[in-house]
Predict the 3D structure of the following.
Amino acid sequence: MELTLDRIYQAAHLLKDCIRKTDIIPSSLASYNKNLHFKAENLQITGSFKVRGAYFKIAMLSEEERAKGVIACSAGNHAQGVALSAARMGINATIFIPNIAPLSKIEATKQLGARVELVDGVYDDAHKAALAFQEKSGGVFIHPFDDIDVIAGQGTIGLEVLEQLPDLEAIVVPVGGGGLISGIAFAVKKLKPSCKVFGVQAAGAGSMHRSMLDKKRVNLDGLSTFADGIAVKTPGETTFKYCRDYVDGIVTVTDDEIATAILTLMEQQKLVAEGAGAVAVAAVMFNDRYQPQGDGIDKIGAGDEVLTRASLNKLPFDLRDKKTCAIVSGGNIDVNILSRVINRGLLTTGRLSELKIEMLDKPGQLKEVSAIIADVGANVIKVMHNYGGENTDIIGCYLHISMETKNKSHFEEVKNAIQKAGYRIV
């Protein structure tokens, strides 16, 4: 079965009484893009877009298929979408979740009435376990991304965005296995071919990014990102085809950049996003971060091509003055991870800084250093004093200082003031 616009419109009609038509929120991040908007799928029921595809897929099952129950695998958001959809239709659901998934997502899935099976490893390991169970039980497997009906459900976001922003010029979409961007790209390109569609992955889980470069599906050996919702080793066969045909480019962002985007969304937009939900925003915020040095070449092989680092990690389109929509795809972040993410975001933006200063252990030193920091407008929040090592002055010591600063340039101002006073920063 091939994806069609009729199928996506059918999904939209079926979903209109089951889900929220989420808001388009104007951005306050004018320094990154003067005409940026967010599609707030983090405010969707279950806290993620995933319910769209899951509900439509399950709704299209025959009575005989429904009687056998449904099976799914997920890092958490698809699990909740399947659990809610199955519960509303009176269908039994068994869901396999990797044990690295946040506890909040696991518990939410259980509360929605599904039977949960935890699997050691990542999403791909849960996928194998779910398929093995499906063979034994005969239930219907609801794939989280590589399924036409699931893709059609996710494509309803594309319809909504174009209705809400008819003059849209670019849309930036999170990518894991590729179901979300496949549906959105297909709908957008069919209805408004001039609109650019870009995907974003975590650098430590860039399977679709690598596949697009190599022009074939690539299986990653491992994954390394806190954005568990898009941590997929191998993109889908169907989704790779739609990405290849309809997506204008896929880039990656680092975990530090994702953390900064989460912090920015909380502070400036009052939106809570999980790691996977914030990657599109991170790509817009850091789109100019890789500038070529020297001859501009940092060679990375990609089949017959040699690409620069900048071309691999920068959106191939200047978004600063373009009407752009970034999809905030989910908000189910574990509160324990959130505290770490906030801390990392503060460090990345230079608002939380640390210094190690070498000095002589004598009265008045701490007072003088503290006064220097205060005069420059920074705030000391933690101090640790240690004696020097074997290669330092016998009465030497180290002063470790944590402080709140405005940004990285402010931190440099603090450092310069301390060095000007004669202290050595280690």
